[in-house]
Design a protein that fits this description.
The complex is a heterodimer.
Chain A: E1 2-5, H1 11-17, E2 41-47, E3 50-56, H2 58-62, H3 71-77, E4 82-85, H4 88-105, E5 110-113, E6 117-120, H5 132-146, E7 151-154, H6 158-167, E8 172-174, H7 180-184, H8 196-205, H9 218-225, H10 227-237, E9 254-263, H11 266-287, E10 289-300, E11 305-316, H12 319-327, E12 339-351, H13 358-361, H14 371-381, E13 388-391, E14 401-404, E15 421-428, E16 430-434, E17 441-446, E18 449-463, E19 476-484, E20 489-495, E21 508-514
Parallel strand pairs in A: 2-4, 7-8
Antiparallel strand pairs in A: 1-6, 1-7, 2-3, 5-6, 9-12, 10-11, 10-12, 13-14, 15-21, 16-17, 17-18, 18-19, 19-20, 20-21
Chain B: E1 10-13, H1 26-36, E2 40-46, H2 52-62, E3 65-73, E4 79-84, H3 87-104, H4 113-118, E5 123-127, H5 134-147, E6 151-155, H6 163-176, E7 180-183, H7 195-205, H8 228-234, H9 239-251, H10 274-289, H11 296-312, H12 315-330, E8 335-338, H13 345-350, E9 379-382, H14 387-398
Parallel strand pairs in B: 1-2, 2-3, 5-6, 6-7
Antiparallel strand pairs in B: 3-4, 4-5, 8-9
Helix pairs in contact in B: 1-2, 10-11, 10-12
The chains are: A alpha+beta, B alpha/beta.
Chain lengths: 515, 417
């Protein structure tokens, strides 16, 4: 069991200090500049109403700044202080990456422990690295190159490793088999991962060291500190097993066929694709995944590679449908001298639960599934050519419409009547004769024709969206629906409410045409 | 040029006492009303008459008459404006609101149609319809059945498509049912400049940002107070709806100024007023205190105090405190008046306090004074072991609905580091 613990520093500032363009391979292996400069550095996070120090560099620790104190207090104690904001999400992301790296390179069972550590299950793996000590040294070296200060503890239980890594002193601590109880005894109670309430209760009873818990009768102990505390103690001492939930590296679903004979005909390629899809669909079904895109790689005899890609509008693992999509593109493959190997990979997958077959037995008429049609059309016309119009909750007509994906359910349309056709931008009208302030125009001219109005409805008042642009603060448009003598119906507006000047200049515009 | 003669009266202005809806204070509404030439203004907040006191001060400063009203939103979705015509109707209205608030809890007013119908007497009701559909017809018929000629149908411009078609249909519906329609401004703020603030208020109410408000914002536009002439121009097609506003304003003569604080009825001795009873009790106490005859200094002071108490009408209050103290004495519970009441010789002789104000030369005016227009308070401490007995006795004697227990939580705020 191994524990990497970082107590006093957060990862984020370390990597901000990293320069990626310093000319060395990958940047990570380069010797780092001093992580914190001459000035002591602390990391603060806001909890509720106060800024609290979450980490401090060694220099700051020497000055008496400790995690948990108020940031204002720290600032008062040390005047020349570098203060960085905590980035818990970035910390977590790095920890996850480290755990994945550990799971790929060192042990099959690795997990993130708390917010500042990793658990590695080393059962049966250290001999690959020359024993526990050499492995621990190697681990420390790896992390140092990355810019982390770490402590390693190897113990028989996750709980003991956790405690020793954080409270057991610097460097590497390797505990002999069965030594957990003795090693834990002098450590503070906080090392046991107890709930805050349990820690507070323990402080009230005057329990400070883990050793104080050993002689206590277990019944009262569970009553006072909670059952969880007793369980933690037993887990750390190895009386009760504690499983580690390991991180699982995600592998891209992939199917591969190496061919006995190079192939070149479309029929043969189609057959191989069908086989590959069969393999891939099985793998996807096992993992409850559906693909959003597929990449087919064809390795040719002359070492050239051909790629074709298909995308789907919705996660699917329907081999027939995917085959149809590929069939549209087979003619784009140039087999050259012949194709040796074909690999089908799914770089973009989504969780897709198995469908119930009962739905298919249901005799009621169901809405046809649009997704296959969308995929087929997008395959021919391109993804950008397919869209659906959806509404945005805005009264300003220009902003009320948005392009949405072809399978997105559009938002509801406003209840007020709107013209069938809207002009892309409003066009100015000339020769408008209208009564102010709230009558539709009697006549107007648009695109070189003049119209006389027989009927009109309005005004519909639309205010500028003042929270978007200061210029719209007081802007007003009064919209009118009018019918001309020739029978056309138009949607016009006037800028301004005709009462105050700042609402608009009373110019008239055409904005749309009804049917 | 003279002002055109107008009849329109704005009956539906919403102040910021409709919490997070109205964007102007009653004072601002009244100031704008007098500037625009209104003679009266109807103040209608949602499920509340809390703004009336401020509206009354608006009436006093501007001379624009306050027409008290309220908007009740029934649980079935109907919205009705109610205006009391007299003081009895005002009582019914406030009782109706109390009922709804007791039912709905904080911030709510849960009312149903039968509650409103039961309080209909003396109230003018205006139905706020949506569209002129079957729903509006049923609601209006019901309203007309309960309120008779005091039922009206609201016509308000929304500045949305089909506005006039909607108003015409509503007006026709009202005529068909024999109900008058009435023009309303549906005012949310006193000046157009308040519209952005109203958007912000709506965003707070909907617990979102102004950007994300979407169609939750106030959908009907043009909600600032307008002049009577402008309103008459807009409703030129509906002259009777304009006339109806003036008729309603004329019918609602209830003046909030009629209402004064009334001390609850206090049990006094048979056949005597509270003042006489207090005088008798004080006399009795004086004779007990000075068996050999009351000194003239005390006589003078008692007469002075009783005269002032009589003028201000505080006698029932003294009697209430006296009966509580007497009960506690009877039960042998220690009690002691304290604070400014110790300046009063009447309190001393009643046994409420035990400091002789004459001996210590204390000034009665520090306790009760004609200059200070506020009622006195008499603090009495009870023995804390047996205080509960007195509390229970007060509940039994005066009833739980008339007694209240207050508590104070003292907190000192520390600025965080």
């Amino acid at each position: 069991m191994r524990e990497l613990g970082r107590r006093s520093e957060a990862a984020a500032p370390v990597f901000r200090a990293l320069r990626s363009d310093d000319g060395t391979s990958g940047g990570l292996a380069a010797p780092l500049p001093p992580l914190w400069g001459l000035r002591p550095t602390i990391v603060v996070a806001r909890t509720g109403q106060r800024d609290v120090v979450t980490a401090a560099c060694p220099a700051a620790l020497d000055l008496g700044l400790v995690p948990g104190m108020a940031a204002a207090h720290a600032r008062a104690l040390v005047s020349d202080l570098d203060i960085l904001d905590a980035a818990p999400d970035a910390d977590r992301a790095w920890l996850d990456r480290l755990a994945l790296h550990a799971a790929r390179c060192w042990t099959p069972t690795a997990a993130v422990s708390g917010t500042d550590g990793l658990w590695l299950d080393l059962s049966g793996t250290t001999h690959l690295f020359g024993g526990e000590e050499r492995f621990a040294a190697r681990l420390l070296g790896f992390l140092r190159r990355l810019g982390f200060t770490a402590r390693v503890a190897i113990a028989g239980t996750p709980g003991a490793a956790h405690a020793l890594a954080r409270y057991g002193g610097a460097g590497v601590g390797i505990l002999p088999e069965g030594g957990e109880s003795d090693a834990l005894a002098p450590l503070p109670l906080a090392a046991l991962r107890l709930a805050p309430e349990a820690l507070a209760a323990a402080a009230r009873f005057g329990i400070e060291r883990i050793a104080d818990l050993y002689p206590m009768p277990r019944g009262p102990l569970a009553r006072r500190l909670g059952r969880g505390a007793v369980e933690r103690l037993d887990q750390a001492r190895g009386f009760v097993p504690e499983p580690i939930v390991p991180v699982v590296p995600f592998d891209m679903p992939e199917a591969r066929r190496s061919l006995l004979e190079p192939i070149g005909t479309a029929e043969a390629i189609e057959q191989v694709i069908a086989d590959l899809l069969g393999d891939l669909v099985l793998a996807l079904r096992e993992r409850s995944l559906g693909v959003r895109s597929l990449v087919l790689r064809c390795d040719r005899l002359d070492m050239g590679a051909q790629f074709i890609t298909v995308g789907t509008a919705r996660a699917t693992r329907d081999a027939k449908h995917l085959m149809r999509l590929f069939r549209l593109r087979i003619d784009r493959i140039e087999p050259g001298l012949g194709i040796e190997t074909m690999v089908l990979a799914a770089p973009q997958v989504e969780a897709l639960a198995p469908e119930a077959i009962a739905a298919a037995l249901d005799t009621a008429r169901q809405a046809p599934d649009l997704a296959p049609l969308v995929d087929a059309l997008a395959g021919r016309a391109g993804d950008a050519a397919l869209f659906r119009l959806s509404a945005i909750e805005s009264d300003v007509p220009e902003r009320a419409i948005v392009r949405a994906g072809p399978l997105v359910k559009p938002a509801g349309w406003p209840v007020w009547p709107r013209p069938i056709r809207m002009l892309a931008r409003p066009e100015a009208l000339s020769g408008v004769v209208a009564l102010l302030p709230d009558h539709p125009p009697r006549r107007f001219a648009w695109r070189g024709r003049s119209y006389a109005v027989v009927a009109g409805d309005g005004p519909e008042r639309i205010h500028g969206e003042w929270w978007r642009r200061p210029g719209e603060m007081w802007a007003v448009r009064d919209y009118f629906r009018v019918e001309a003598t020739s029978g056309e119906r138009f949607w016009l507006f006037r800028r301004g409410d005709a009462i105050t000047d700042k609402t608009g200049d009373l110019s008239w515009y055409m904005h749309g045409v009804f049917g | 040029m003279t002002e055109p003669v107008t009849t329109y009266v704005e009956l539906y202005a919403t102040s910021h006492f409709s919490f997070l809806r109205g964007a102007s204070s009653p004072e601002e509404l009244f100031a704008a009303a007098v500037a625009l030439g209104h003679s009266a203004l109807g103040l209608c907040d949602r499920g509340s008459v809390a703004g009336m006191v401020r509206g009354l001060s608006g009436q006093e400063t501007t001379g624009v008459r306050l027409i008290a009203g309220t908007r009740v939103d029934l649980r079935d979705g109907r919205s009705i404006l109610l205006y009391p015509t007299d003081r009895a109707a005002w009582s019914r209205l406030t009782r109706l609101l109390s009922l709804g608030k007791a039912r709905g809890g904080k911030g709510n007013c849960w009312l149903d149609w039968p509650d409103v119908a039961a309080a209909a007497e003396g109230l003018v009701a205006i139905l706020l319809p949506g569209e002129a559909d079957e729903r509006a017809r049923l609601d209006l018929a019901e309203l007309s059945g309960a309120f008779g000629p005091r039922a009206f149908l609201a016509l308000a411009l929304r500045r949305r498509p089909g506005d006039f078609a909607r108003l015409r249909a509503l007006d026709a519906l009202a005529q068909e049912l024999g109900v008058r329609s009435v023009a309303l401004g549906d005012i949310l703020y006193h000046a157009p400049e308040r519209r952005p603030l109203q958007d912000v208020l709506t965003a707070i109410r909907e617990k979102t940002t102004v950007d994300a408000l979407g169609f939750k914002r106030e959908r009907f536009m043009d909600r600032a107070l307008k002049s009577p002439a402008e309103m008459e121009r807009r409703f030129a097609l509906f002259p009777d709806a304009i006339a109806a506003t003036a008729d309603i304003a004329a019918a609602c003569r209830f003046d909030l100024g009629e209402i004064r604080y009334q001390y609850p009825y206090e049990q006094v001795m048979e056949g005597r007023t509270a003042q006489e009873a207090l005088a008798a009790l004080t006399e009795e106490g004086a004779n007990r205190m000075f068996p050999g005859g009351v000194p003239p200094a005390y006589r003078k002071q008692i007469a002075h105090e009783l005269r002032l108490i009589g003028e201000l009408g505080y006698a029932p209050y003294f009697l209430t405190v006296n009966s509580i103290v007497a009960e506690s004495r009877r039960r042998g519970i220690l009690c002691q008046g304290r604070g400014s009441a110790a300046n009063s010789c009447v309190c001393f002789l009643l046994g409420v306090t035990s400091i002789d104000p004459i001996k210590h030369e204390l000034l009665f005016e520090r306790f009760v004074s004609g200059e200070r227009k506020e009622p006195p308070d008499i603090d009495v401490d009870f023995e804390h072991e047996r205080r509960e007995e007195i509390i229970q006795w007060i509940y039994e004697t005066y009833g739980r609905h008339r007694s209240a227990l207050t508590a104070v939580v003292t907190r000192s705020w520390r600025r965080s580091l």
